[in-house]
Prior knowledge:
Elements: H1 15-26, E1 32-36, H2 39-42, H3 61-69, E2 74-78, H4 79-85, E3 93-97, H5 120-130, E4 133-141, H6 148-164, E5 168-173, H7 186-198, E6 203-206, E7 210-211, E8 214-215, H8 220-226, E9 231-235, H9 242-254, E10 260-263, H10 265-268, H11 272-286, H12 292-300
Parallel strand pairs: 1-2, 1-10, 2-3, 3-4, 4-5, 5-6, 6-9, 9-10
Antiparallel strand pairs: 7-8
Helix pairs in contact: 3-11, 7-8, 9-11, 11-12
Amino acid sequence: MIQQWLPADVPADSEGKFLENFEKSTGGSGRLMLFAGDQKVEHLNDDFYGPDIPKEDNDPEHMFKIASRADIGVFATQIGLLSRYGRDYKSVPYVVKINSKTNLIPYSQKDPWSQQWLDVDDVARFARSSGLDIRGIGYTVYLGSEHEHAMLKEAAQIVHDAHEHGLLAILWIYPKGKYVEDEHDAHLIAGAAGVATCLGADFVKVKVPYTNGRFDPVLLSEATTAAGRTGVLCEGGARIDEAEFLAQLHEQIHIGHTRGNGTGRNIHQRPLEEAIRMANAIYAITVKNASVEKALEILKT
């Protein structure tokens, strides 16, 4: 029942809109396939231009072409990209990321602080005036940063305001900064997931836990239990072999009990047709409960 995911801070007159946004975005499964397109700020052009990256990925429209033709839950990116390309891609379901920072300043030099760019009210007005299918708000918190108090305060208000408008609230919570020794520590990731629940988020995107430098899906269960009714999404990370990625995603969901994924590079760092097939394969595992074998068949079609 989708009703079980309805937060109590969604006003009665926004409940219908929230439930519709949730059901459409998760395909009725409760799981979210988030196509992440916020890296042009976060990683500058490192993810879009270079060896083994198709030339078309350097054009921001590449991501919109993928999002418009592939099976996705939502496409998350900054509002400026939506304002430049949204008129041509009105069918895409969007999440507006309302804070971002670059990677130019090393964490060893200064703890990260990613401030809010816009208010949720600004996004709601933009949705009404543009007619775009904006279903949610995204915001990043760098837990462990000496500036975490400012980001947590902003995040709490953003989640509340998003729900007021019937929008999904999705948090990226990454422990980073000079006080964080291992951002892939399973216990720390579980703590981050629990913070997202305390903030009232519908979904939280987190790092994947490692054992001796390797992904371990069993360790995810601490985070997914700690998150309670907040759905845990694992980051997609750097591009890896398709079969390995899809196998890890299946393990995250069926062993670690995550409720989706947030994938960018493993989709958009491919030529258009291949990227569409990869997104469809990820969606099939995430939302349609497909096997890895079925997802690999989708890649070949």
